[in-house]
């Protein structure tokens, strides 16, 4: 083995020490981030798991004092409102994203749209609720599932638009050129070649946006309002897990608190499932040509 | 006979003039090479022949480009229709990553709204892949993604894709610059075979390649057409001093 000059050796020790110190700091920081997350999740499971049973998903809420009952209507309501919101947001948001990434678009219009989307993403969700109350609930003469879905869609659309734009901008320009050079019209090129290549990225963006809005309470308070009974009508108030959890959590009743914990757990589980789907899609990676 | 005729054609990027009043007759069923140093406007020149130049922001063309005597920049001419008659192969092979080999070949037909039944489609796919000398290598893997092929195969796939639309002219913009010598030889052989059916314009920065595959050569310098003529004559006895300096490697 070659002998090393002592000062070289000392320098190497110092480098090793620095590397070790930085690594320790990074690990500590990671733990610090993860600890609250697992505390929250753990506590949620501990408190909520007792309230979860078949009846929770199939039964209606019971009046205070009566045991049993569930939040079946709220689970269904959340699925309906979030589902409808996603459909609306995907139609408008993906379309907007495609427009923003088109090379031929008017640059100042695109910048305006992009700015508006960014501002809209920053608007407090309660403001979105009030806005939809004013433009949908009042003219329609009452709270409704439709209004709730619109409120969530307003929050979701800018997220979808921006992530779509980003996914599309990752598509190599050569693909667009190749398609145009084959005599494929521009709109077909954008849809069938560019958007199709970015489909996985777009799907990921949509699901992440969906997971974010699924947990929103404020926009639903004066739009979907909540409902103690089964309802799927778009024109009538509808129950949603978030609103139900909120109502139950601020009540003074022990039973209701237990139900609220169970509701929170179910909601979190639903979001985690969506996140899992996202990971399995994006984990396979966007296939791009070399 | 001139298949394509450029008449005082100039090309611009915004205010910059990339090509200056080019007059050039490209003969039918021959290979015409476009040579010149980087940035002289070779690619721009061929991109003007299928109206791809204007897809770049602020880019425009002045003058006329006649295809079979008809001005492709005339009023009411649809660039999409021109691109179906004048196919193009780019520098970097770019098969569509979401599509299989056969879908890559058929994409120009499918997305142009041509209703084809399975048999017709399979026939066109096979014919195009055969013409691009790729059929024997991929005939058992037609369902595999186009991106699973090697670089040289990908480029031949792109040629097959262009041929499937049945163009009359094939523009090739440095088709071998991303390929190894063996794949390059494949493509060059292919060019020689294809010229009996197509009019080919090939941009190349490789002068040996131009000498090997082309019948005519155009030499561009700084956006100006310096010399055009028979390839043999250009490479053995050029008329202009600049041409001689370039092909003997004194600059470029």
Task: Name some characteristics of this structure.
heterodimer, A: 290 residues, mainly alpha, MetI-like fold, 2 domains, 74% helix, 0% strand, B: 252 residues, alpha/beta, Rossmann fold, six-stranded mixed sheet, four-stranded antiparallel sheet, 10 strands, 36% helix, globular
Quick take:
Helices cover 74% and strands 0% of the residues of chain A.
Q: How many beta strands in the DSSP annotation of chain A?
A: 0
Work out the number of β strands of chain B: 10
Briefly note the structural class of the backbone of chain A.
mainly alpha
Largest sheet of chain A: none
**Whole-number radius of gyration of chain A?**
25 Å
Specify the number of helices of chain B. 10
Provide an overview of this structure:
With 290 residues, chain A is mainly alpha-helical. Chain A has twelve helices and no strands. In chain A, helix 1 (6-48) crosses helix 12. The radius of gyration of chain A is 25 Å and the shape is flat. In chain B, helix 3 (101-110) packs across helix 4 (118-131) and helix 4 (118-131) packs across helix 6 (151-164). Chain B is an alpha/beta fold and 252 residues long. In chain B, a hairpin with a 2-residue loop joins strand 4 (59-67) and strand 5. The longest helix of chain B has 14 residues, at 118-131. Chain B contains ten helices and ten strands. At the A-B interface, helix 7 and helix 8 of A face helix 2 and helix 6 of B.
How would the blueprint of this fold be written?
The complex is a heterodimer of chains A (290) and B (252).
Chain A: H1 6-48, H2 54-58, H3 72-101, H4 107-122, H5 125-140, H6 145-169, H7 173-181, H8 186-197, H9 199-214, H10 218-221, H11 241-249, H12 254-283
Helix pairs in contact in A: 1-12, 3-6, 3-9, 4-6, 5-6, 6-9, 7-8, 9-12, 11-12
Chain B: E1 2-13, E2 16-27, E3 31-35, H1 42-49, E4 59-67, E5 70-71, H2 79-85, E6 86-89, H3 101-110, H4 118-131, H5 135-138, H6 151-164, E7 169-173, H7 181-194, E8 199-203, H8 207-213, E9 216-221, E10 224-230, H9 231-236, H10 241-247
Helix pairs in contact in B: 3-4, 3-6, 4-6, 6-7
């Amino acid at each position: 083995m070659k002998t090393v000059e002592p000062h070289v050796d000392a320098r190497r020790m110092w480098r090793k020490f620095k590397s070790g110190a930085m690594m320790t700091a990074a690990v500590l920081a990671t733990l610090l981030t993860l600890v609250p997350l697992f505390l929250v999740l753990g506590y949620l499971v501990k408190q909520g798991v007792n309230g979860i049973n078949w009846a929770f998903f199939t039964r209606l809420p019971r009046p205070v004092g009566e045991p049993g009952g569930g939040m079946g209507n709220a689970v269904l309501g959340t699925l309906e409102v979030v589902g409808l919101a996603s459909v609306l947001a995907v139609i408008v948001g993906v379309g907007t994203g495609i427009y923003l990434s088109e090379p031929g678009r008017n640059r100042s219009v695109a910048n305006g749209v992009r700015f508006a989307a960014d501002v809209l993403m920053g608007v407090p969700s309660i403001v979105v609720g009030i806005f939809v109350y004013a433009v949908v609930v009042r003219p329609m003469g009452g709270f409704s599932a439709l209004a709730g879905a619109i409120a969530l869609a307003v929050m979701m659309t800018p997220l979808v638009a921006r992530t779509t734009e980003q996914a599309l901008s990752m598509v190599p320009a050569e693909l667009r050129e190749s398609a145009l050079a084959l005599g494929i019209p521009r709109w077909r090129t954008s849809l069938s070649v560019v958007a199709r290549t970015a489909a996985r990225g777009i799907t990921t963006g949509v699901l992440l946006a969906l997971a974010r809005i699924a947990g929103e309470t404020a926009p639903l308070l004066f739009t979907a309002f909540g409902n103690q009974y089964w309802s799927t009508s778009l024109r009538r108030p509808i129950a949603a897990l978030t609103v139900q959890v909120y109502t139950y959590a601020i009540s003074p009743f022990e039973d209701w608190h237990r139900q609220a914990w169970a509701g929170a757990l179910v909601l979190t589980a639903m979001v985690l499932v969506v996140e899992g789907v996202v990971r399995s899609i994006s984990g396979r990676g966007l296939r791009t040509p070399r | 006979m001139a298949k394509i005729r450029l008449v005082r054609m100039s090309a611009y990027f915004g205010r910059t003039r990339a090509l200056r009043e080019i007059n050039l007759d490209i003969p039918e069923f021959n290979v015409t090479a476009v040579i010149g140093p980087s940035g002289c406007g070779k690619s721009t020149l061929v991109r003007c022949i299928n109206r791809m130049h204007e897809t770049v922001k602020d880019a425009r063309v002045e003058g006329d480009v006649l295809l079979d005597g008809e001005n492709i920049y005339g009023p009411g001419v649809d660039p999409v229709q021109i691109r179906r008659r004048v196919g193009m192969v780019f520098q970097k092979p770019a098969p569509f990553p979401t599509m299989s080999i056969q879908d890559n070949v058929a994409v120009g037909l499918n997305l142009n709204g041509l209703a084809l039944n399975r048999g017709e489609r399979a026939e066109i796919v096979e014919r195009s892949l055969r013409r691009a000398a790729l059929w024997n290598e991929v005939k058992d893997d037609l369902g595999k993604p186009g991106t699973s092929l090697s670089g040289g195969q990908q480029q031949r796939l792109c040629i097959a894709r262009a041929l499937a639309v049945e163009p009359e002219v094939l523009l090739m913009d440095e088709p071998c610059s991303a390929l190894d010598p063996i794949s390059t030889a494949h493509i060059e052989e292919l060019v020689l075979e294809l010229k009996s059916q197509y009019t080919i314009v090939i941009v190349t920065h490789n002068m040996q390649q131009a000498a090997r595959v082309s019948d005519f050569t155009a030499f561009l310098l700084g956006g100006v057409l310096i010399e055009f003529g028979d390839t043999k004559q250009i490479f053995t006895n050029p008329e202009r001093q600049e041409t001689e300096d370039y092909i003997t490697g004194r600059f470029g």
